[in-house]
Amino acid sequence: MSTLAGDDTVNTGVSSSNDIVPVADRVDPFRVFGIVGFVLSLFAILNLAGLVISIIALVRSERAGFRNRFALAGVVLAGLGVLVTLIIVAIAGGALVDAAQTCARLGDGVHTIGNATYSCAPGSFYVSYPR
């Protein structure tokens, strides 16, 4: 075996206790769950499912001692998506209830109130505004 000049060590190919051995990092068991929740939070129809899955992944990852940033992002995005959806449903629901009550009060037929035209029939209604 050859050694370098001034070097008294010999490379035998066997690691000693002084060698740096890379230790495999622990893997977050809920990382994939967090990614799935994040992806679901990007779709308007699946926001609620994304919120639930992201919360589960975030809590379980924290219990295991990990920070799951995908789950955290999924919670934030899905939470905002659910909030926006609830606001839209509240506004649209209120408008639909108002139109249905107006048709119930006016009866069947076509009615004009202000600049809105209500077409009322049993079980359905349509409201139009001039452009």
What does this entry look like structurally?
The chain has 131 residues and is an alpha+beta fold. Helix content is 50%, strand content 12%. It has three helices and three strands. The protein has helices at 31-41, 47-63, 69-106; strands at residues 109-113, 116-121, 124-128. Strands 1-2-3 form a three-stranded antiparallel beta sheet, covered by helices on one side. Strand 2 (116-121) and strand 3 (124-128) form a beta hairpin. Helix 1 packs antiparallel against helix 2, helix 1 packs parallel to helix 3 (69-106) and helix 2 (47-63) packs antiparallel against helix 3. 18% of the residues are buried. The model has no long low-confidence stretch (mean pLDDT 86).
Sum up the structure in keywords.
single chain, 131 residues, alpha+beta, three-stranded antiparallel beta sheet, 3 helices, 3 strands, 50% helix, 12% strand, rod-shaped
